[in-house]
Amino acid sequence: MGIKKKAIVLLSGGLDSAVTLYIAKKQGFNCHCLVFDYGQRHRKEIESAKKIVKKTGCSCKVLKINLPWGGSSLLGDKVPSTYVPGRNIIFLSFALSYAEAIAARAIFIGAHTQDYSGYPDCRPEFLKAFGAMAGKGTKAGVENSSIVIKAPLLYKRKSEIIKIGAKLNVPFNQTWSCYAGGEKPCGKCDSCYYRRKGFKEAGLIDKALC
Question: Do 158 and 113 form a contact (C-beta atoms < 8 A)?
Answer without folding.
Answer: no
